[in-house]
């Protein structure tokens, strides 16, 4: 890659350090040109005696990394929208545009040693954990080259080598799985934690509270992350939740509310969350955010809210624009450099779209693979009729 390409990927490269302790040490060794940014929206806390700082130290390389990755996510999701409308994407498709600061800020405050498990709104997380735009779009289009060989689609991104466990299609199902991953971290004693993300629409599910109770009893290094984008499908939080202060919903577990549209606020909050989870036990965070698209591509997103509401949020709180303003206002990055990044990212995403379109679909034989762990080639699976089955009848391994 060119020097500029390497710089644009600096954010993702930094998070690739697998050792949690080593990554924390690296963050202290800031390069010259560090500035201190005053954060503008205070945190709200529940059962906590301390909170994250209201300032953030940041370098030129960090700002460039955050902005370029967020802008890449935004362009990727816009392309996914276009591909879906052109009927290249089959099945469901849930977009993340408007919520990019949460993903990028959390990655900046954690490491790949920390595990992440999320809902079906997972494209950006797959990218942040080391996949390429081409890889994400190949999976969306059901093509070879995707993380699930084109067999999973939008809701089932996955990257185990970077501790990203999906991509889960059942609402709220990732919460108890995230608790189980936290148990594995505690059992291993690796000093890392599990981040289990869910939306406000899943916040009233019983399985969240059952798993949180066990996590509290066992003092697991678990962070419950409620991405409050204000609407669960087509229902506003005020109509669905008797208590919509989701950071307080843990009851006996402390919580914090953070501006989820500010990448630096999310970063500082994530550092605080991880420290608490590893040293004390589970904690709940509510990231206040907003989704620009409907719940999924089948939802126009304007029957339960109006276009003016969406436009007002874009104008006042857009997370990508805020990251850009940090770059310019700190005078660490010039407007010309931002324009060059935008140009290169647009070209990268456009090339990825064409590559995904041109990629071949999975071989028909892939229909029978990856059904069970360790299955032999003789493992029997029945097709629509016995003549289209696979394997040897009676073989169950």
What descriptors fit this protein?
397 residues, alpha/beta, two-stranded antiparallel sheet, 14 helices, disordered N terminus
Verbal overview:
42% of the residues lie in helices and 11% in strands. It is an alpha/beta fold and 397 residues long. The strands form three sheets. Strands 2-9-10-6-5-4 form a six-stranded mixed sheet, with helices on both faces. Strand 9 (255-259), helix 11 (263-279) and strand 10 form a beta-alpha-beta unit. Helix 4 runs antiparallel to helix 13 (319-329), helix 7 runs parallel beside helix 14 (335-358) and helix 8 packs parallel to helix 9 (206-218). It starts with a helix and ends in a 39-residue tail after the last helix.
In short:
With about 400 residues, the chain is of the alpha/beta class.
Radius of gyration: 21 Å
- Please tell me the overall pLDDT: 90
Number of helices: 14
How many β-strand runs?
Answer: 10
Uncertain stretches of 5 or more adjacent residues: 2-31
What is the chain-wise order of helices and strands?
HHHEEEHHEHHHEHEEEHEHEHHH
Tell me the span between the first and last alpha carbons. Answer: 45 Å
Can you tell me the overall shape? globular
Quick one: biggest sheet? Answer: 6 strands, mixed
Which structural class do the helices and strands define? alpha/beta
**Strand portion:** 5-15%
- Bin the helical content: 40-55%
Q: Give me the side-by-side strand order of the main sheet.
A: 2-9-10-6-5-4
